[in-house]
Amino acid sequence: MPIDAAKALAAPPRTAEISWTPKDVQLYHLGIGAGVPATDPGELRYTLESRLHVLPSFATVAGDRPPGVIGALSMPGVDVDLARVLHGGQALTVHRPLPVRGTATATARITAVYDKGTAAVLVLRTEAADADGPLWTEEARIFVRGEGGWGGDRGPSARTAAPSGAASAGTPAGEPDVTVDRPVREDQALLYRLSGDDNPLHADPDFARRAGFERPVLHGLCTYGLTLKTVVDRLLAGEVTRVRSYAARFAGVAYPGETLRIRLWGHPSRQGGGTVRATVTAVERGEAPVLADTVVECG
Ligand SMILES: CCCCCCC[C@@H](O)CC(=O)SCCNC(=O)CCNC(=O)[C@H](O)C(C)(C)COP(=O)(O)OP(=O)(O)OC[C@H]1O[C@@H](n2cnc3c(N)ncnc32)[C@H](O)[C@@H]1OP(=O)(O)O
C-alpha cells in the first residue's frame, strides 16, 4: 500500500541540522516577489543586506532541508507519486524573531494521516530550535489525490461553514479593510524553486500536464509568503517581528503570470496585537479561490 498510516505514524522523528545566511533570506524574498519597486525603502528591508529583516514564512524553506520537498514525502510508510501530491495547507508559529543568519535543528514527523476516501491528507509537523531554544513550529498538510479508501480516520473537514453575511464559505463577513491586486511574475515559480522546492510541478510543462494542469502551477508556499508580506507591509507597518502565527488553506491553484487579489480584514495594533484574516483569489479566472481560512495572529 503506498500509504501505510500505522507505519508513517510510528516512524521516529527525522532530525536535520539546518543553517541559513542572509543570501538565502534575500533569495527567498525575491522568490515571493519582494523588491518591486526596487528602491522603495520598505522593499529594501527585504533585499538589502544592510537593512535585512526576515519574513517569518522564510521558516518554511530555511536550511534547504535535505533532500527537499521530495524528502518530506519519502518518510517511512509514505510512497506516493509526486504528480498526485498537492500542498493542502500550512501553519506556522513563530516562537522568536528569525535571525538573518542562523543554525538550528529541525525535527520532523508525520503526526496524522487522514483518509478522505478518494484522497489522503498527511500532516507533517516540524519543530526548529537553536541553542537559545525553540524558534518555530510548522505544520504542512499534504493532499495526495487518488490515495485513501482504507477505512481510516477522516480527520477534520476543510469545508468551512460560511459566517453569516459572508459571500462564500471561508470568507470573513463585511468589507475588507485592504484589497491589493498583486501581479505574479511569469518566472516567479522558477525563482521561488531556487529556495529548495524543486518539485517539477512548478517548472516542467510535461510533468504539470501529467499532474492534470494546463501548465506549471505556482508553489503554494510562494502564495503563502507573498500574502504574509502583504499583511506585514499593509497592516503591520512593515514590522516582521509582530507576526506570531500564520495559517492558510490552499483552496485552488495559482498560475505564474496571474494577478492575485488579496483581501485583508483586521486592525492589529502595536499595543494589543490582533487577528488578520485574508482571502486570495485569481483575478483572471473569475476570482477562483487560491487561499482560504487564512489567519495571521499579530503582536
Ligand atoms: C514539507 C512540505 C511538503 C509540501 C508538499 C507539497 C509540495 C509542493 O511543491 C506542491 C505545491 O505547492 S501544490 C500548489 C499548492 N496547492 C494547491 O494548489 C492546491 C489547491 N487546492 C486544490 O486544488 C483543492 O482544494 C484540493 C485538490 C486540495 C481539494 O479539492 P477537492 O479534491 O475538490 O476536495 P473536496 O472534494 O473539496 O474535499 C475532499 C476532502 O478533502 C478535504 N480537503 C479539501 N481541501 C483540503 C485541503 N486544502 N487540505 C486538507 N484537506 C482538504 C475536504 O474537507 C474533504 O474532506 P471531508 O469530506 O472530510 O470534509
UniProtKB/TrEMBL annotation:
Transmembrane segments: none annotated. Residues 171-282 form the MaoC-like domain. Residues 147-181 are annotated as: Disordered. Residues 20-146 form the Peroxisomal multifunctional enzyme type 2-like N-terminal domain. GO terms for biological process: fatty acid beta-oxidation. GO terms for molecular function: (3S)-3-hydroxyacyl-CoA dehydrogenase (NAD+) activity; 17-beta-hydroxysteroid dehydrogenase (NAD+) activity; enoyl-CoA hydratase activity. Residues 155-174 have a biased composition (Low complexity). InterPro entries: HotDog_dom_sf, MaoC-like_dom, MFE-2_N. Gene3D superfamilies: Hotdog Thioesterase. Belongs to the enoyl-CoA hydratase/isomerase family. This is MaoC family dehydratase N-terminal domain-containing protein. It comes from Streptomyces mexicanus.
